[in-house]
Amino acid sequence: MERIYLDHAATAPMHPRVIETMTDAMQSEFGNPSSIHSYGRSARHLLDTARSEIARSIGAAPNEIIFTSGGTEADNMALIGMAEALKDKGKHIITTEIEHHAILNTCHFLEKSGYELTYLPVDETGMISLEQLNSVLRDDSILVSIMFGNNEVGTVQPIREIGALLKEHSAFFHTDAVQAYGLLPFDVKQMGIDLLSVSAHKINGPKGIGFLYAGNNVPILPRTYGGEQERKRRAGTENVPAIAGFSEAVKISKESMAEKTEQYAGFKRIVINIFEREDIEYQVNGNAESCLPHILNVSFPGANVESMLVNLDLAGIAASSGSACTAGSIEPSHVLVSMFGKGSERTRNSIRFSFGFGNSEQQVEKAALETAKIVKRLVNK
């Protein structure tokens, strides 16, 4: 049985070029980048080259890139590092109800530490209101953290407009761009972004490496202490092979961005056309005009998400819900609850398909047909 992986928003396979780059680095660059001898200098050169490549990809300066262990650490560093640095100026932070748990759970920690959090709701397409954001800004608001593109339904927030709004305010602007990076072009300076989080494994790079962009005007405090790596902002010997692989993944994503956007849009059309042809009932969750190209979240009235996922897996298809599996039961997605309300059936019958490297039209067609069969079986039994 052919296995079809349609869960690239959770993690993506490493690109062969990334594996080759990392293997070369592991074999030849074992020096500590902080050492002054030739081995250290060689590793430092690789590190500096990767930092420059990654900085260029978002319109930043190399010294504004802080390598981390991934998106979660970058999010934690942005929120807690800024909260600690700015606590004398205020303790009010604004975010949204639909953030990744790397943001939400960090916000819960900050609430317990004496900070006041405002969680913006979203409409039925997953979009925040700029007017509402403006209305909750206060003199003591120090940070606004709003994700670039949602990992469950794919809705892309009005990031440029948020950046423009905050130019008139002293609050700093952070965005979790883990899902958007590598698929959407953006420039942090032009968009008014002060801090931005990214993870390599979403763009066919290795797990365990990411970065936080922090503009030179950002007074962030470190979260780890030790050596003076990353300009004293993140102690610990850098993971040189993973950073080299990350840089290669960035190059590949830049080369193929337009092609991938077109390809994934085609995949979405294939799925929807097959659902229409098979005459099953479905509803697409998210914002049709402002969305990530690779995520398609679909509600199937009368179906059950747990049964759907089990049956898809038995058919060799890896998809997901946006839900967290806790103690053997699937809790409703907090994103869908925010969009449709706690009692909505959509919180219990929605599946996320996410496309990526290695997928073909034939695979997507097969997955859509199998999904339609499963829906008919579950709904009509």
UniProtKB/TrEMBL annotation:
PROSITE patterns referenced in this protein's UniProt entry, alphabetically: AA_TRANSFER_CLASS_5
Family: Belongs to the class-V pyridoxal-phosphate-dependent aminotransferase family. NifS/IscS subfamily.
Protein name: cysteine desulfurase
Enzyme class: transferase
InterPro entries for this protein: Aminotrans_V_dom (IPR000192), Aminotrans_V_PyrdxlP_BS (IPR020578), Cysteine_dSase (IPR016454), PyrdxlP-dep_Trfase (IPR015424), PyrdxlP-dep_Trfase_major (IPR015421), PyrdxlP-dep_Trfase_small (IPR015422)
Start and end residues of each Aminotransferase class V domain: 4-366
Cofactor(s) recorded in Swiss-Prot or TrEMBL: pyridoxal 5'-phosphate
UniProt-listed Enzyme Commission number(s): 2.8.1.7
Reactions performed catalytically: (sulfur carrier)-H + L-cysteine = (sulfur carrier)-SH + L-alanine
